[in-house]
Design brief:
Length: 312
């Protein structure tokens, strides 16, 4: 049975006009595919979460929550940034069988406004060789409608800049957190432009800071800040762990003014838990300069390296 992709994609265009955000968009898109496509047993989305994919809205049997980027058909679509049409899943090395009835599969990457893969659309069938070239074209057009709609929705990712002492340990701490998509260490809110580590060390005025990109659906800002509070001494002035100096001050620097009330509320709440006054800066981000490459993911490069945060 052939699918009327013109009709399907017209319906998707109408759904994409409605206000909402990506979770509702993905939920309705998977429901529409489920109602329309014959011979399928799963239709839904995985969204990019750091190096991996994490389960999003879908129709079908319960599925695995996390797919590493090096695994499965979904991981291949993410890595290679192209549609994977798999006529026989058993012949695909690394295929992940969430539903043992699946015989064939198509996975299409969805790109965000910056052209990076932000999610994949995954459709499984219990029929061998279910997806034709016509299906590929129709479903790629369907995915494209979703991609366009995603750009107008509340972002799937937000960014906040957090200073919590030596940025080596802080970066590892945030990298291990579910809902954190990407991190980068750098120097924030100081005087000089593009400072070097040496200049920052000698008091150029910047704070060692981690740029934290996160998914607010999975990790609301308030929760992220609570987790940050767990690894800092918020009353210490220009000092964390064994490190002393203005570059080791604590601070929350927001790029989106809409985050200011949340930051202030979180700090007010925190201050009630301490007798001393807090030393955590609460400021808009003035500037963030990425640190030198050898500082990025430092503790991955040097697993036994200095770290003021205890991970056990
Ligand atoms: N088969 C997929 C895993 C997801 S399930 O199909 C829902 C894969 O190999 O990536």
């Amino acid at each position: 049975m052939t699918v009327d992709y013109k009709l399907l994609n017209g319906q998707m265009e109408s759904l994409a006009q409605a206000e909402g955000w990506y979770v509702s968009l993905f939920a309705n898109a998977s429901a529409l595919l489920w109602e329309t496509l014959p011979d399928i047993n799963w239709a839904g989305f995985y969204t990019v979460d750091g190096p991996d994919l994490v389960l999003g809205p879908f129709h079908g049997k319960v599925a695995c929550i996390r797919i590493p980027r090096e695994k499965g058909v979904c991981g291949a679509a993410l890595r290679e940034d192209r549609t994977m049409l798999v006529p026989d899943v058993h012949a695909f090395p690394g295929h992940i069988a969430c539903d043992s009835a699946s015989r064939s599969e198509i996975v299409i990457p969805l790109r965000d406004g910056r052209g990076r893969v932000a999610a994949v659309l995954d459709i499984d069938s219990p029929v061998l060789n279910r997806f034709s070239e016509q299906d590929r074209q129709g479903l790629e057009a369907f995915a494209h409608i979703i991609e366009k709609a995603m750009k107008g929705l509340a972002p799937m990712e937000k960014t906040i800049y957090l200073a919590g002492g030596c940025f080596w340990g802080c970066q590892k701490y945030f990298d291990l957190m579910d809902g954190v998509i990407e991190t980068e260490v750098g120097y924030a809110n100081g005087d000089a432009e593009n400072p070097t580590y040496e200049q920052v060390k000698h008091g150029a005025g910047h704070a060692e800071t981690v740029r934290v990109v996160y998914d607010p659906a999975r990790l609301p800002l308030r929760e992220l800040l609570e987790r940050y509070f767990q690894v800092i001494d918020p009353t210490a002035v220009n000092h964390q762990g064994e490190d002393f100096g203005i570059q080791y001050r604590t601070g929350i620097y927001y790029a989106d003014p809409a985050d200011a009330p949340t930051v202030t509320a979180a700090l007010n709440d925190l201050s009630r838990r301490y007798d001393k006054s807090l030393a955590v800066e609460n400021q808009p981000l003035q500037a963030f300069y990425p640190a030198e490459e050898y500082h990025q993911k430092y503790l991955e490069k040097h697993p036994g390296g200095y770290c003021h945060i205890h991970f056990d």
